[in-house]
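Residues pack. Consider this:
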Amino acid sequence: MKPGYEEIMSWMKDYFSAYNAYAQSPETVNRMSDYFTPDVRFVPFVSAFGGPEGAVTGRDDFFRMFTSHPTVYEQFDVEDIAVDEKRMVTTALLKVVLYESGSDRILVRKHYLPRYQLVLDEKNRLKISEILFFWEATPPEVDEAYAIEKAE
């Protein structure tokens, strides 16, 4: 039986808490296996990741991506979660702070808007099978367009 709204919402809140605590350390990242299918697919709509062509498939590669930036870590603050229990989809608006590891100096504040496709595994547990990932950024063409507009 598919989980309802409250169960999905609670599970997503647990996921974000676990991400902040465990996802970015090589020593603890495997604790995140409780949240992802082995063939999870991460599709970035962000040029820094190569756009959708830079998709990462597979939990091991996804976890390598989590831990590939040891000089920086990020913390999620959930501003909103939308749940469609019928389609097993959630979307979250996250306020994100990137910190310098060691000093905890704030480097960047921005927002992410990930869309999570959920499935039930063989033991009827929720798992994330796909993430469509967007972040707050301005593509170079937008900066150029505004520069042209201001010059006119």
In short: Residues 5-151 form a domain with the Nuclear Transport Factor 2; Chain: A, fold (CATH 3.10.450.50). The chain has three helices and seven strands. The chain has a mean pLDDT of 91.
